[in-house]
Design brief:
By secondary structure, the protein is mostly beta strands. 0% of the residues lie in helices and 48% in strands. It has a 34-stranded parallel sheet that branches. It has a 24-stranded parallel sheet, with no helix packed on it. Strands 2-5-8-11-14-17-21 form a 7-stranded parallel sheet, with no helix packed on it.
Length: 716
């Protein structure tokens, strides 16, 4: 090997000049080779330049040696690697970097003027004491070469002991990390960064090699700070694998207080994140992918498997106060999230605070959250769209006794019109609120609307026996009977199958009031509920039904063209203390026992509905229907017991007379042979009006002569 200077085994080399400049001849492969030696730089500023050679050599090659800096002067750059072409500026292998205890704090340990540095099996041990100072800094590219880009061929087995610092820092330096392999980096102190990029207009992480088995002690692998960047630019992370990086923020994007940009996009595509973790401290705002930026962010065709902790966290920052910046929009397209776990107390693995969020064509399987969503927590100020996605076996449970919300998705919404469309939720569950979805609103406004359309909910449930709500969906917030954070919701063309909860087997709507402050309108249109149920024991309410399909306290409730089948025990429970009547229109109840429980301060109209083998019981001991109810143009068919029982128990304590009108209804195919019975039973405290009704195909033994109608005499 030809070289300018070669030091070998058991050699000690010292330089004592103020500055030494070593220039390399064209015939040498390396300017300086140090192998199995001790190199001490005392009171000097070393500059290595004009490197030529192959990819395995650089301006300085240091192999199996110790480089110790012992200077009493304030040298900004004790060691400078310089390359004026595209070769390696420094190649360091099996090296330990030390600093004498007498050395004052240094700004930077090594400066690289060039485009490439390779580090293999190196250790930096307390090289300086200033927090925030980088170990390596790259600067001053030679623009005559075009625009060369920083490259790492390898960065393996590096140990960094410096706290709150950057291992490598680049400022306004174009970077291309294609082919870079970063393995086994260990930080022994918190809050440090492996590579910090500042104000970079050209940054590409395309086609990287494996980034794996790093442990940064809650530090950051790639820290990108946006400052002085072009107004429009896209940062790309493409076709890379990140595996088994423990206690590590792999990416952090943030910006300086003076940063301003109109259109910055951060795009992750065809990346795979596997078995990475970030175990959050209670005060941390950090994640495996930490987005503290007002940019647009895109995840496309990425795979996330068996990661733990905050996976993607987009949050706001106040700079300067009271200005708040947050992500402009976040898109997740064609991605898969599997086996994600979250062990911390609050939020969930995907926590997205943004102006808008779009999630399409993605799969979420076997993920576990602890408080706010099994896999996804949304806080959007404008709108969100979740479309063509699958949520399977996502859970949100909390073993420390605190409440948990949203087996798959937790939503806090401040926009005008958002939707969840054509999605499937299967076997999702939570402890308390919303087995699949929990939605609340940033403020009370008539314009807040969420539409859930063409979605399927199968075997979704809540788990807590007495105080859990909405086996599939919960909307609103319970704050000791203060109705806040409510908004409007439309459910259209959705199916709910075998969903369960203590209250509202499929759906639970919290309270709402008329007006701009407390407003909540709910519309259920063309939905199907099949074999849903409520469960649990409720003390004084053991005999009361709490909505096998729906439990609603909303201000306005419309249920139209929906199908309920194979259920019992109060399929729809409505509790309202306003004078605005609920509307139940053109619905079908098939093989349902006791479709309604009502507690109302208004008259209720049930129109154009079909009751197929679905007997109705309304008893003033359980139901509060003092303002009355009406059945209009309804069909009652195919029962084997009875059609309607009003105030059934003659010995119950009925304190009021409630009116009931049955108009233009048909009763047919009544087939009970074994015991005396009736089509309609009217209790002694019911004021019945029967107009223009038809009774057809009645067969059976009448109850005291009233096969079509039996009216209980008034008790004395």
């Amino acid at each position: 090997m030809l070289c300018f200077l070669f030091l070998t085994l058991s050699t000690s080399f010292s330089i004592h000049e103020k500055e030494v400049k070593l220039s390399k001849t064209n015939n040498a492969k390396s300017l300086l080779i140090i192998e199995k030696s001790s190199f001490t730089n005392t009171n000097s500023h070393l500059l290595y330049e004009k490197c030529t050679g192959n990819p395995a050599t650089g301006a300085i090659d240091a192999i199996d040696c110790i480089l110790e800096i012992d200077t009493s002067t304030f040298a900004f750059y004790p060691i400078v690697f310089k390359s004026t072409n595209n070769d390696i500026a420094g190649y360091l292998k099996w090296c330990t970097f030390l600093k004498s205890s007498t050395v004052p704090d240094l700004e930077t340990f090594v400066t690289v003027i060039g485009n490439r540095l390779d580090l293999i099996d190196c250790r930096l041990n307390d090289i300086y004491k200033n927090k925030g100072s980088p170990a390596f800094i790259f600067k001053d590219l030679n623009t005559k070469l075009g625009v060369p880009k920083l490259q790492f061929a390898s960065c393996k087995n590096v140990v960094f002991d410096q706290p709150s610092s950057s291992f490598i820092e680049l400022t306004n330096y174009p970077v291309d990390l294609a082919g870079c392999v970063i393995n086994n980096i260990v930080f022994n102190n918190k809050d440090s960064s492996f590579i910090k990029f500042r104000g970079i207009n050209s940054l590409q992480f395309n086609d990287m090699g494996n980034v794996s088995n790093n442990n940064l002690n809650n530090g950051i692998l790639f820290h990108i700070t946006l400052e002085n960047v072009d107004s429009e630019y896209q940062y790309e992370v493409n076709n890379a694998n990140y595996q088994n990086n423990l206690n590590t923020q792999i990416f952090k994007f943030d910006f300086t207080p003076t940063y301003y940009a109109t259109s910055i996009t951060i795009k992750f595509s065809n990346c795979k994140f596997t078995e990475n973790s970030y175990i959050q401290d209670s005060s941390d705002q950090a994640a495996i992918i930490n987005l503290c930026t007002d940019s647009s962010v895109i995840f496309e065709d990425c795979i996330f498997e068996k990661n733990n902790g905050y996976l993607i966290y987009s949050h706001f920052i106040v700079v300067p106060s009271p200005v708040i910046k947050y992500a402009k929009d976040i898109s997740i397209i064609g991605c898969n999230f599997t086996g994600t776990t979250f062990e911390q107390r609050k939020n969930t693995s995907l926590t997205l605070f943004a102006e808008s969020v779009t999630i399409k064509g993605s799969n979420f399987n076997d993920n576990k959250g602890k408080r706010n969503g099994g896999i996804l927590c949304l806080l959007t100020l404008a709108e969100f769209i979740i479309e063509n996605c699958h949520f399977n076996k996502n859970t949100c449970t909390n073993s420390d006794g605190e409440q948990s919300f949203g087996g798959a998705i937790y939503i806090t919404y401040g926009g005008v019109d958002s939707k969840i469309k054509n999605c499937n939720f299967t076997d999702c569950q939570t402890g308390h609120f919303g087995g699949a979805i929990y939605a609340t609103y940033l403020s009370n406004d008539k314009q807040r609307l969420i539409t859930i359309e063409e979605c399927n909910f199968v075997s979704c449930k809540t788990l807590v026996e007495k105080e859990s709500f909405g086996g599939a969906i919960t909307c609103g917030k319970d704050t000791h009977l203060k109705e806040i954070n409510d908004g409007d919701m439309i459910l259209k063309l959705c199916t709910f199958t075998k969903c369960e909860s203590a209250r509202g087997g499929a759906i639970f709507f919290f309270n709402g009031h008329e007006g701009s402050v407390y407003d909540e309108e709910k519309y259920i249109v063309e939905c199907t509920f099949d074999n849903c149920k409520f469960f649990g024991s409720f003390g004084d309410y053991d005999n009361q039904d709490f909505g096998a399909a729906i439990y609603s306290q909303t201000y306005i409730l419309h249920i139209n063209q929906s199908h309920f089948k194979n259920m019992k025990d109060g399929i729809i429970y409505i509790l309202m203390d306003e004078g605005h009547p609920p509307i139940i229109h053109d619905c079908t109840f098939e093989s349902c026992e006791n479709p309604f429980n009502l507690d109302l301060d208004s008259h209720v109209n049930i129109t154009n509905c079909h009751f197929l083998n679905s007997p109705i019981v309304l008893n003033s001991d359980i139901d509060d229907i003092r303002y009355g109810l009406s059945f209009y143009d309804c069909e009652f068919k195919d029962t084997s017991s009875y059609f309607i029982r009003l105030g059934y128990d003659p010995y119950s304590l009925e304190f009021y007379i409630f009116p009931c009108s049955i108009t233009k209804c048909t009763f047919s195919n009544f087939q009970l042979q074994s015991a005396p019975t009736y089509c309609i039973y009217v209790g002694s405290h019911v004021q019945l009006t029967l107009i223009d009704c038809e009774f057809q195909d009645l067969a059976g033994k009448s109850y005291q002569g009233g096969l079509a109608l039996y009216i209980e005499k008034k008790r004395k």
